[in-house]
Amino acid sequence: MERNLYEQLVKNYNNELTHSGVNGKRLAARLDELSRIGLMESGGVTRPGYSEEEKRAKELVISWMESAGLSVTADGAGNVFGRLEGKKDTPAIVSGSHVDSVPNGGHFDGPLGVLSALEVVEAWKETGYIPEKPYEVAIFSDEEGSRFKSSLTGSRAFMGQMKPEEMDSLRDENGKSFREVLAEYGSSAEECLRAGNNRREMDTFVEVHIEQGKVLEREGQPVGVVRGIAGPASLEVTFTGEAGHAGNTPMAGRKDPLVAASLFVGAIEKFPKQVSDTAVATVGKLNVHPNGFNVIAQEVKLIVDIRDIFEETRDQLLEIISEEARKIAEERNIEVQMNLNAKIKPLPIKETLQAKIAGSLSKFDIKPVYIPSGAGHDTMIVGTEIPAAMLFVRSKDGISHNPREWTSLNDCVYGVHVLKDFVEGLMED
Description:
By secondary structure, this protein is an alpha/beta fold. The chain has helices at 5-10, 24-35, 52-67, 111-127, 153-158, 164-169, 178-185, 189-197, 215-219, 257-268, 272-275, 311-332, 351-362, 378-382, 409-428; strands at 71-74, 80-84, 92-98, 135-140, 202-210, 223-229, 231-240, 244-245, 280-289, 295-296, 299-308, 335-343, 347-348, 370-373, 388-393.
């Protein structure tokens, strides 16, 4: 990707999409400016959570918030909120995302959601629209979690889900503790924990995000409706057999855990569709011990990532996969141990909110496409207690977390128009 993101974005832009106060070139210019903070030689960007780069990105957006007439505040977790007062003193409609990135990531994952929410304010300013309810643009800290291998930090702190013991255990690759990093950032662990106590009232939260998949591309639609956000369960499975010489041990009677693991991995593929059309299961990590080319393995350890947007079917799939591991171990006369490392609640999006988004899509002649989100987002944390919705914007080739991550400006602007119409509808409820 060329370094001038603006020129790339506007090259094939349909200027007719700039209307109703929404300005595509303004959005492109801001995506370009943000892309220069933490820019790598590869064309990607590196802005870890609670880094100087993330802080500079927030400060840049804050300057745009203030010029748009928003009053800006931040909490002890570094979360930023730009507020526009409404005609009524009610809980606010909130939209936003994050500006941190994975190492050598793309320019749309996170920033598009923040800037789309801000572009709604700019559009209202140009057209003289005054919202009935307060509206806030949110930037949550450290969504990606690349620095501490613990994601969604800002939104979890905001929702009161961070614990002191977690803060004590987190360290970055340089050995700095989370507490030390917060102090350098200009906050403290105590202030971060207080973010949950000082939480602002929200009517509804809505996040615009790139799809990170190929459904919209396949359907030929620029924007889609998120059905729900999958909650992952991480099942660690260890098959233990008997090591032996590959040449001197007869095939009959072998207790080979790698064969058992292979049968297990091969079987997993057929199970998700038995419980749900949105369930998935993946083995992406497998360790063999002693891992010698001429040695029958002693032990194989693997991790199964199991996800669905519905907790009941996710847990049903977890049990089916666990039972398969036990069955194979018994048939192969080897031992198996299982440990559930993590189990996070999925977030189904309320059908009433999905219907409202679909109504907004239809106003722009966009066919509603309903998509489950397999990845985690700040929405799944905020949505544990607050009504929450998500819009997906089409991703080229489904690429994400990569310098080649790309969403056309036309699709980005369609996303803003849909968000604006959806939020204006919520204002009237």
